[in-house]
Amino acid sequence: MNCSTLSMRSSRSIRRWENRVPSDPASALRRIALYGSAFADRLDQVQALLGDGFETVHVPADLGQAETAQALGDAYAVIAVSTVEGLPLPQGLKLLQVPGIGWDGVKVEHVPASASIANVAGHEIAVAEYCLAQMLDWCHRLRAADAEFRAGSWARSSRYGGGPHRELRGSTVGIIGYGGIGRELARMLKALGVRVVAANRSASAFDDLVDAGFALADIPAMLEQCNFAIVAAALTPQTEGLIGQEALEALGPDGVLVNVARGPVVAEQALYDSLADGRLGGAVIDVWYRYPDRLDAADRAPSRFDFAALPNVVMTPHISGWTEGTASRRVAIIAENLRRAAAGDPLLNVVAMGTRTA
């Protein structure tokens, strides 16, 4: 069992790694490389589940191209959230495993044709709980009450004339994209006495948790009856900008949008303008339009618009799905997929099939 890390740019670090490569060609086919920082903290857990006969190596994204090529070597599988033009993936690659559900950062044309591309879910409970927590907070104004009370104000208390806040029970929540997250959230909401409506590309996705189902083209009509809108649709060419000005205005000045899908599913300028002028009551945004290359990047702004200046926005840095439960489920699924790829067995969660066998 062997898990090594390339953490320096020097050729010496590459040689140390090369010296650990098994000399048996059959063993080399069981080498796995994790490229970049995402999921690197879970690589030891993946290695432990795989056991003997597999070697995992962490390849930092800031290595030069030649060093990266040496580090990736002849790995049969690479774990990565994204690919860039020129990334020297092994030509005999069997599996490009994305360690999350979103694979929009992977360009199929950058991946050898021998490789299948797979993603992994396991985040449905976490994201549903995040959405529920944000809606409950929006109703009960807990963060605002905490901040004001820390500053010495009792004004929200009924004892001193403070007005009542809302309850989530009796609200209508619209879910846009009724997949795993949507179904998990619907189960939670129904237990709280919430009316659930949903819009989806396929009407066959709706179940008895949904009080009314809509086509994607009818989202504005659906949102007219909603207090909250949860955006959970995958980002595709068809869903980019799916939620635009018409839909946001239908949700209205008392409505709140929660985006846990991908930033561009909601039109960026339309969202900002609607929030800034009060045509939309509020938004909780966990997914963004820009992501920095690294934590210390000079430009870390998540959007070209200053959402942080708006008082009716809650902002989080893409955290809704990342819990210990999610991580544990993903480790198990990824390890199983890596094992299947090595054995030539059918893979899980394939989003793009390899076009030739290795």
Automatic annotation (TrEMBL):
Pfam families, A to Z: 2-Hacid_dh_C
Keyword NAD: yes
An annotated GO cellular component: cytosol
Stretches assigned to the D-isomer specific 2-hydroxyacid dehydrogenase NAD-binding domain: 132-320
SUPFAM superfamilies recorded: Formate/glycerate dehydrogenase catalytic domain-like, NAD(P)-binding Rossmann-fold domains
Family annotation (InterPro entries): D-isomer_2-hydroxyacid_DH, D-isomer_DH_NAD-bd, NAD(P)-bd_dom_sf
Record keywords: NAD, Oxidoreductase
GO molecular function, one term: hydroxypyruvate reductase [NAD(P)H] activity
Protein name according to UniProt: Phosphoglycerate dehydrogenase
Organism, scientific name: Devosia ginsengisoli
